[in-house]
Amino acid sequence: EFGVGKTTIAQKVFNEREIERHFDRRVWVSVSQTFTEEQIMRSMLNTLGEASAKDDANELLKKINQYLLGKRYLIVMDDVWSEDVVWWQRICQGLPKGNGSCIIITTRIEKVSRKMGVKEVRIHRPKFLNEDYSWLLFRKIAFAASDGNCIYPDLEDVGKEIVEKCKGLPLAIKAVGGMMLCKTPYYREWRRIANHFRDELIENDNSVMASLQLSYDELPSYLKSCFLSF
């Protein structure tokens, strides 16, 4: 599921102090939809050491092996899309084995994780946030100026209505919460946003995309053109 927090969970693990102490080497690779096997290996080497521009895939893999040999390593392959995992099989075969090393894969396609060799018992499926946690996350962002406390009683019900439309997806909640932080704390303004969000969801039954569209729609015109220039 898009926006449920897969990458965020992996980042929390990756940056945990105990994890940092436990592993000799940690490598984070953002795979995404557009990648080549060589780009991934060069990304790994950017963390581990140096690679020559002339190095081909075999040379790159040899260097990765040398840098990791005898080390306990953690590798994160983040946001893998392709069901064709031949590239991963080649890289995986070239990695040193043993020493208690670990590989984490994040993907929104469960078939990909299975093809990459992840056993069922090792698959973690992040859950949607429940009503209380959704509201807590929203409050921390939308009411950051008051330390996450909703100090406007007339905004609580409409705020919870907005959060409910996010369907427990952290990315949607963060996007809308960040937008509401910049809005005046008036009921009429918040009601207008809630109604707009409802209309967006009717057109696009995806709370993350609807929240992102809503955030864009609410930008002033000069910022819309700046945003689109990217």
From TrEMBL:
Residues 3-147 form the NB-ARC domain. It comes from the Eukaryota. Keywords: Plant defense. GO terms for biological process: defense response. One of its GO terms (molecular function) is ADP binding. This is NBS/LRR resistance protein-like protein. It comes from Theobroma cacao (Cacao).
